[in-house]
Amino acid sequence: MGQKMSSDCLTRSEVFGQLRRELYGEEQSSHSNTHLFIILGASGDLAKKKIYPTLWWLFRDGLLPDNTFFVGFARSNLTVDDIKAACLPHMKVSDEDKDYLSAFFSKNSYLSGRYDDGSSFDQLNRHLSSLSGGGNTNRLFYLALPPTVYHHVSTNIRTHCMSLKGWNRVIVEKPFGRDLQSSQELSAHLSSLFTEDQIYRIDHYLGKEMVQNLMVLRFGNRIFGPIWNRNSVACVVLTFKEPFGTQGRGGYFDDFGIIRDVMQNHLLQMLCLVAMEKPPSTSPDDVRDEKVKVLKCITPVEVSDVVLGQYVGDPEGEGQSRLGYLDDPTVPKDSCTPTFATAVLYVQNERWDGVPFILRCGKALNERKAEVRLQFTDVPGDIFGDSCQRNELVVRVQPDEAIYLKMTTKRPGVYFNPEETELDLTYKSRYKDVKLPDAYERLILDVFCGNQMHFVRSDELREAWRIFTPLLHQIEREKMCPIPYTYGSRGPREADDLMKRVGFRYEGTYKWVQPHTT
Amino acid sequence: FFLEKMSLPLSRSEVFGELRKELHEDEEFHQSDVHVFIIMGASVRVQSLTEWLFRDGLLPEQTYFVGFARTNLSVDALRTACMPYLKVTDTEAERLSAFFGRNTYISGKYADGDSFSKLNAHIESLPGGPGANRLFYLALPPTVYHDVTKNIKHHCMSMKGWNRVIVEKPFGHDLQSSEELSTHLSSLFTEDQIYRIDHYLGKEMVQNLMVLRFGNRIFGPIWNRDSVACVVLTFKEPFGTQGRGGYFDDFGIIRDVMQNHLLQMLSLVAMEKPASTSSDDVRDEKVKVLKCIAPLSMSDVVLGQYVGDPEGEGDAKLSYLDDPTVPKGSTQATFATAVLYVHNERWDGVPFILRCGKALNERKAEVRLQFTDVPGDIFGNQCRRNELVVRVQPNEAVYAKMMSKKPGVYFHPEETELDLTYKSRYKDVKLPDAYERLILDVFCGSQMHFVRSDELREAWRIFTPLLHQIEKEKPKPIPYKYGSRGPQEADDLVQRVGFRYEGTYKWVNPHRL
């Protein structure tokens, strides 16, 4: 897959060499030749569906260092074969990959133990040492665990499993707490054990092609510089929409709600990348410094700037769409958890003062879509009799990655009136032979390479929680009732009203046209 | 054929009604429903154009066509001459007959008042003729302009309807001769009766320039000297004079292409936003741009003349001087690159590079804005300059060359484009011919896409000193090979004034399978 990504014909090792040079710098990589990737929670869903398959793809494509071993650790008594059986359905193995697959699993081992038991981790450490053959090893610990055991596991890793000669990196998954206080407690705990440059907090949106592209688009193009500010931008809309509901897995979701699940992390991360100033360099900390600066300029969200929704079944729908959120048997009967939210934030700095950043996300909506949309202001002194619609720059994150600039052109033919069209860059048309890697592939590779740019730093996380915690507490305290919306709809009408009120213009006259269909 | 262009199925009269509403908002049009289109010179080309428009139902129903020339011709003979250009399908045969049923032909002498009285009597004799609006298309060599226009004025003007006169280039060959012609014309007709055709103004993408610029908020803040490094206006033809160099040699590439077509495009790129889209508001702004351009000096110009490519095939083996109609030893330029500066607040210091030539490596007409480098680049000088390209022909397109993250597990920028290719985006739209649009504009009384006297004067003012110097000193144009990019010296000049060409990017048609 790595080979297919590049247009030049490179061998696997050349690709990796190139990547390493680009992402990594030569010195660090010579620390050690052996890498140990330890999955804590190896029997869980995340490990089975995401982590093992991702490691396999990276291995298959020759993107991992040659001497890499994978060690699973969990409470259950399992064998590597059990792990393999559980993961295979998610690994997309083709016939010609069979040999590689055996090679991959021959580098795997599994240990069971208790998360709160120091001796289990001693045992793990002995196993890790035995794999390295006594040489230097770098260790990557992936915490694919429920928050309840984070404390013990991280303490035990620190106490028993750190490599003394190579580097140690710890990959952490959300939830990173559930409000400012709990998140700060977790961060304080982690930083008592590890340094910031050892901690890799995953927000998988930061691994997406188009999210990563935002920086290049913004800072690599002269034409966007002069218009990327409050003088030209009317509003920014960050959207995440899913066309399905909780599908019987609402139990976990109900503890968190859509704001914690999507808005406070994924959408806010995209906001930072859209709003931040140009960093002095592309080094991870320079970039993250700028992202934090954006967050610091955002005041906590007010309830009056938020619309919450909860989906109800569509009696005319089919299958799942007949079911409301409350019909999910794992959801408490009287749950007020929002499955939809629209919130308006303002970045109070010189560049963005007064420009609404609209964050929209929801389940059981009319489409699957994640995008960043900058809507520009009206043309001043219009000479076309008010027939010009606003320009918009849209970066579509998923599905069907694209960048397009909604703009006005002369209606083709013997006319002279303006009509809407777009300048388009649709990836699957423009880059036909390029397979975009999965977000997790990129991120895990980044951990190997020691690149923290696409990971969430402690202070970013703190600021993100600062913005949303008062709102979340108020919602929970007052048990605010979300507005019901029909499964498969655009969400509550009130959300569209809010957007309109703060300045987003939706004319309904334009629909993106795939210019390449025949 | 026009109906196919539209996305909505409209009847012919609806289409025409809509066009009329859009293009022509004053009442003049309604003075008379009868129009007489008089072609002076009985040109097959103009005849064919009117037939297309008639067939497409774009002309008012009651329109008659009258040919006038010295030769003794019949309508049938004209029809036969036109047939190869008409592209008539079987279903259109009836419409074709209807068209030629509206055609008449009169022969007469251009200098002879009586011939024009006869022409006038003929026009009056047509149904509704006495009150009809009259369009005179002067498809004539410049030598007879004087006589014909005078005779039209004295013998053929409609007293009740309006009169409009369509004039084609050459509009003189320098400032003085052009001014004489303009003075003559304006002694006979008012400015709003004169329609000077520069057919580039009838092209889809040239007409689009105004909408692109003034209909989009995003272009406003970057369309100036702060963001634009240079503007390149290009016209390239892949063939030489092909045995028809006699006419060309009198004029040369600067008069043939640069002083009119390229300069018109320059005006549309550089002008300020007009007060409205009314014809004179737009032309006022174009004139203002020209007024800010100093006459060209020799040091800002590279001239070339093509020589045969011994390794080429067919015509490519032939030099300009091998054309038997070209005078031996001619120093006429078949290629020119010139750099102009618009000395106003928006454009001071920004080079406008005009390039045109025959027998080059490709057929292309385009407008290209190259933007300045990204200030404070953080990607280790991997960023190439942004460019906005409006491709006029062939294959109409607008695209913004820009940087994007190299797709995949990379994080470095690479060149790509945001693209709008007409034939992909507007699959069912057939773009009308430039002349078709312009003739329609004359019917509708819209002068926006025609050259006003003062525009013409300013254009000649800019180029006349250079042209005179060339003719006086007869500098030898730099030879360049048939099928090449033109003289290396032209690329050097372009680079010297600030255009950056890296050779790393090639436009990719994203729609090709």
Summarize the helices and strands and which ones pair or pack:
The complex is a heterodimer of chains A (518) and B (513).
Chain A: H1 2-5, H2 12-24, H3 26-29, E1 34-40, H4 45-60, E2 67-74, H5 80-87, H6 98-106, E3 108-112, H7 118-132, E4 137-143, H8 150-160, E5 168-172, H9 180-193, E6 199-201, H10 209-220, E7 233-241, H11 250-275, H12 284-296, E8 306-312, E9 340-346, E10 356-362, E11 369-376, E12 392-398, E13 402-410, E14 418-426, H13 427-430, H14 439-449, H15 458-478, E15 483-486, H16 493-502
Parallel strand pairs in A: 1-2, 1-4, 2-3, 4-5, 5-6, 7-10, 8-15
Antiparallel strand pairs in A: 7-11, 8-9, 9-10, 11-12, 12-13, 13-14
Chain B: H1 2-5, H2 12-23, E1 35-40, H3 44-55, E2 63-69, H4 75-86, H5 93-101, E3 103-107, H6 113-125, E4 133-138, H7 145-155, E5 163-168, H8 175-188, E6 194-197, H9 204-214, E7 228-236, H10 245-270, H11 279-291, E8 301-307, E9 335-341, E10 351-357, E11 364-371, E12 387-393, E13 397-405, E14 413-421, H12 422-425, H13 434-444, H14 453-473, E15 478-481, H15 488-497
Parallel strand pairs in B: 1-2, 1-4, 2-3, 4-5, 5-6, 7-10, 8-15
Antiparallel strand pairs in B: 7-11, 8-9, 9-10, 11-12, 12-13, 13-14
Helix pairs in contact in B: 3-4, 3-13, 6-7, 7-8, 8-14, 10-11, 10-14, 11-14
